[in-house]
Amino acid sequence: MNANQTLPAPAKMRRLGNSEIEVSGIAWGMWRLAENGRTAADAAKLVHSALDAGINFLDTADIYGFNGESGFGDAEALLGEVLAAEPALRARMVLASKGGIIPPLPYDQSAAYLSSALDASLKRLQAETIDLYQIHRPDILAHPQEVAKTLDDAVKAGKIRTIGVSNFTIHQIAALNQFLGHKLVATQPEISPLRITCFENGELDQAMMMGLTPLAWSPLGGGRLANPDSERDNAVAAELDRVAGEQGVSRSVAAYSWLMAHPAGIIPIVGSQQPERIAEAVEAYKVRWSRQDWYAVLVAARGERLP
Prior knowledge:
- InterPro entries: AKR, AKR_Detox_Biosynth, Aldo/ket_reductase_CS, NAD(P)_OxRdtase_dom_sf, NADP_OxRdtase_dom.
- There is one protein chain.
- The protein is of the alpha/beta class.
- Helix content is 39%, strand content 14%.
- The strands form two sheets. An eight-stranded parallel β-barrel has the order 3-4-5-6-7-8-9-10, surrounded by six helices. A two-stranded antiparallel ribbon has the order 1-2.
């Protein structure tokens, strides 16, 4: 393959890790689902927007909705209202959630807390099972063997189908997986054209080695790609815009597709709470990258030439 030949097209559906679960190549995240007084009817429209666009992978967390003082569990509870009103929606989605953070205490993955957090999530979601349950951030004070036993027990009890982690280092992932009977299927780090750490620090190499599906949170750089304000950010946006203009898509879609072109099979988590933006995201499947164009974005993000 020369520099001008295109990289393989991203898969619209793929296995979640080494499991039998089929997920879309793009996910929708509900970090801001419970904001702005959104009702269950409003939330249902967003859920339908994702599912109707072919996005079956929905990601939430127990802390979504927390504003620093209140709101813990609000996003899960709102989705639970949607599922209670339309039970048939549950079969159309792969439901992912996260736990292990409890304000004001930073992180807690002791057996007692993690078990109670999972039960509370199931109750709020009004669901019998969570398809992918992820430890949200690592608790340094929890032995990975204790965490693994709690998660394995939850799988055996039918409360969760598969296990993942979020914001774990490569060594924390390896340690937890060592003790798990039901091995990890996913890892969720922050990845975007503005945050390329995992391309070079071994995280994605480990994911490929272990068969983990990488889920990218904040794939648009927390909104910075939409409003770049530094020389580096503007350089990245310019490279994305060049490809976006050539292929008739928006900068956001180009950013999603740039991540999806990586051989690890990165699934970007679209965070928009606007139906049209959710539906637009699937245009990323049609974008094709050449090696030259892909590396041009990486070089802009690094701020220096490759060695």
